[in-house]
């Protein structure tokens, strides 16, 4: 593509203006007017330029590349000084390409109109002071091999997966300034009211009911619902959580634990937020241990009602989101029928009248300020003998029949309990996804900043060094970025399995284990990543305007709610032990033999001294090596845990004592297992792709993810003779090389997260200082 | 000691009332009135009880123990039910000890008056519902061996060290409700004004000037000043930081970089906050790299003035604490004399007039909301050719003489720069100390909560398990507690060396290296500990009322300010390399030989296969083993770094390139060296003590600190063949045992931190739910 000098004169502006795929819609008109006023351009040129300003139909990747090529070839012919502005660059290039008759490019009028365009495009204050190489090609310092640069949009579509269009739609919506809350808003009442209005706006657009059946205003898409949730995490996290409480927890409980009569009566109004509700499970005295909640729901056969009661102060429902705005609560309580406790059930209890006054017997207390999420109204709720009709019992898994007898399709209380809880797994799936979004957003900010921020003159006499060129900085950020890549594919698989098993199929148990494991892994990943990114941006990272403050404060509770991570990981380990036991039980002697054989062969294969000491880079970078490490670790931890437990049983230790003695082991096993799962999904994704630059770029992420995971846990691998000390050192060296490979494309890797600037917001990632 | 039934009836109340060594002074009168109204008590008994209510002269340890003994012996004789209240317990015990004539203890009047006393003591709503064993002897479940229980007050005096009285004084002061800021205050202007008043109050009491000479209102005690700072960290961290900015940074710069004329003119008013000032060093464009600041200070020989100027937007002073309240700034700028740049110097520049309006040429912009510290007014400051008299140049290390020529006692610019910066090392010393205080406060809250919070019935049919009885919980909290213990002794040594070298002696270099290392280590320790404690307290930890929110948000920047931790650790490594080089240079051939010999002998000693594989618990718990590990690691990292650098030099790599290639290595070395230093100071402290229960308890902390540090870095130790895989596993087992030893005394270990309840505040650490 050969461009005219006129077009060339503004190419740098367009390249930068579009470089983050966002052109402000409100400024479009003004940009077009400016172009029409540039009378040194031919009509054709004006037309072409205007065609490039349509946000709905942005320039194709090809066009974009043609700009870059034109800029590169033009600028190669001239001496580009270090500190040239975009306008000067354009003018110089136009002049060069004009040949002899080039005085026009010196005319003050021309310069002025290009400067005005620059202002309209909103790039002037950002970039005019930055040098061409720094802003247009951050990779210039470490020369990127052109043929290796991948297309961030193609990569984004790999990451976005099947729900890409829905995600784009949700993103567009929350980009509206209506969803922007100023950092100056600190008062919780003000924040809560703003967020309430925002949730209403989402509900009006049909986002609230997305998981519900169509007859209740929904799209019958639990997977889509999680995609919306995942995307909302790019914006205000208070909004995300209030959205989740209303539609996922409250509505989800009605949908999953209730029956048609409940759906007909409540689901539609829940999805539109006509009926604001909360999910009253946790009590002050019982958080993780839901089964021993103290609240009672006593069936009164005389008038076919249920009396809900908090027997002690500690039986109050604690930390209930939406508690102050709700009209109704789903209350989890011990259901007593004919003096017999049938275990935990959920009952719908109205909380407030139309005037929003609490009903008799209901006490609600504000939880006050929290570390974050101050736009969510958390409170404590007590019930003093509140009586509701029997029909308010959500009776999908257990109800009371005509004769006042308890009936359930699941006879065993413990199985019923876990089935009910399992039906609510969507919250954990959603949180795993949203955690990763928050991590990506911080990485996006920190990496962009590290490509602008310079400190100390080391490599270059004229300019200080970009902080991303420091190996310590790369080691801090790239492994976290690789984890976010891996988690993306693993959580996509989880979403798929969840959507497939929705409504309670046999596969649900697998989904529960995966959700527990990935929620824990992803929420810790978010906590670690936001912290590291904050520190990596120094004092600037501490300012509210740069987003980490809210990201950190708002997501910090993700490691606790929807199940404390330590407790969840123990559930994962228990499930793995059960599976192992099942395998033994099913297979009898042969299974045991297989087990032993498997252990033998794995040790023969992996503990082969040649392999243990193989420090060859090709071997270390091979999927085979990583696979063997991941499998060996989770298998060995599982077998040794099972062996230890058997030996304790042999010694007649009581089960609770055995549990305590193996608790840390269980947590290690669960972590290793989750990491192996992420690895496997990453490999599957990679293998499913045709050869491309994006595939190569993904392979590097997979290698960093896996080798860094092994290196981080090298203590265990060395302790268990899986690798030798020399091999561990060789892994470090290979990782160093991988970091250097990522460095020139770092901006592309975060660009592919697809977080629009208007949501990323942080000034350090946007404006030059 | 034998007590009368009357006294026995209220002993449980007194025991609990005093159990955290705090009785509210304002309630003392009301308690005494209640006692006087208890007419079933003899006059002697009333007198005794009243003597126990004096907060200034609290019951002795002996008295306290006599109460416990009386309670234990009385309650042993009767069946104490699980959920007895303190009043019932007292009444029952009194009844039992009264013998036959015991009807009085059933009288409603008596019960009522004891209940009123309970309320006056402020223990009723906290503890009446908790069982006797749970509240009075949290160690009951894991029976503590009586003779092992140490005295937390004796331990506290070991931790508090030489400045204990000053610390107590400062603590008492900030316990006043004047220093308490409600969590409802969210507006930064409101917070800033409150904090400003509080700093004034501290100044009035002489705390501000503490480090300055007596003639300027001070106590001439830089060590005392850091002890005050360390103690203030128990309260509002915004107050701490504003205090530090005014008296440490602004006043410290005048004192350390100025000469008598500056001291006479400004120091007194600075110490009283008559003159509010700020420390304008960091610029937007230059944080870590102070030497390349852009602000200029040009000497004008004609009128003997200096013109201070910010040449670019990025040259603006960034993130300056006190910027909005200050009348004056110490501005760091490139001093230009006769067109020659003499490097960074500090100049006093007035910012505002008496009406608090900014002076001509001064622009100040609020930094807005931050993650935390919103009670501190941070801002950006620009200077537009602001001219001040020459005498405003702080000229201790470099000034301009009569003839307009630059003069300095330190000829080399780089040496002068580092000397000036070194004079300001007090900030890092203070921050290392305050970081540890913040960590201790979170541990105190989390451990107290974990001794009240129960979840899941595992060990006991009747009661759920205390969460501190879970091994995962112990592994999460105890190693952090042990680090806080170790850091206490190491930072005390740092303080001592700092106070000794104050004013610029030759030992200052050692102090700088230590301060850089310990500030980094301690601030990361605070970040990690607060995070872990927040998570360990679950959802409760997320509520603002439980303190972690502020602790986290306010201290998060400690890893960045007063020098980014990564940058500081590289300084540490450089200093170690310089020392090593110096040793070579000084000693010539013999030094090299010694070096080689030392390496040989250390490898002979430590890499001896017998030792590498020695998994004997006694060996692992020995100071010798820990010492060899700590020394081996930091020595080996130092020698290998030095070897690598030499080899790169041999390959003719440019120094900046060598720096980049060894950067992660430098950081590892510095961390290892700091940890070894902490270990050594811990050992020295232990060895200095006579045998006692406290010494035994400290030994366990030392063992956990060291073995956990080794275990955490087992990857390195295995990689370097210092330990075998079996030995690493054995260390884990020994650590498990140590955790179990700590468990029954956990509350004593945190009690010894000496943080009064009124400062600890968190409701979860105080009230029963």
From TrEMBL, chains A, B:
Keyword annotations from UniProtKB, A to Z: FAD, Fatty acid metabolism, Flavoprotein, Lipid metabolism, Oxidoreductase, Peroxisome
Start and end residues of each Acyl-CoA oxidase C-terminal domain: 625-757
Domain Acyl-CoA dehydrogenase/oxidase N-terminal: 168-269
Molecular function terms from GO: acyl-CoA oxidase activity; FAD binding; fatty acid binding
SUPFAM superfamilies: Acyl-CoA dehydrogenase C-terminal domain-like (SSF47203), Acyl-CoA dehydrogenase NM domain-like (SSF56645)
Domain Acyl-CoA oxidase C-alpha1, chain residue ranges per copy: 422-577
Necessary cofactors: FAD
Listed Pfam families: ACOX, ACOX_C_alpha1, Acyl-CoA_dh_M, Acyl-CoA_dh_N
Subcellular location: Peroxisome
Gene3D superfamilies found in the cross-reference section: Acyl-CoA dehydrogenase/oxidase, N-terminal domain (1.10.540.10), Butyryl-CoA Dehydrogenase, subunit A, domain 2 (2.40.110.10), Butyryl-CoA Dehydrogenase, subunit A, domain 3 (1.20.140.10)
GO biological processes: fatty acid beta-oxidation using acyl-CoA oxidase; lipid homeostasis
Domain Acyl-CoA oxidase/dehydrogenase middle span(s) in chain numbering: 278-386
EC number annotated for this UniProt entry: 1.3.3.6
Assigned protein family: Belongs to the acyl-CoA oxidase family.
PANTHER family assigned: ELECTRON TRANSPORT OXIDOREDUCTASE (PTHR10909)
Protein name per Swiss-Prot or TrEMBL: acyl-CoA oxidase
Species the sequence originates in: Jiulongibacter sediminis
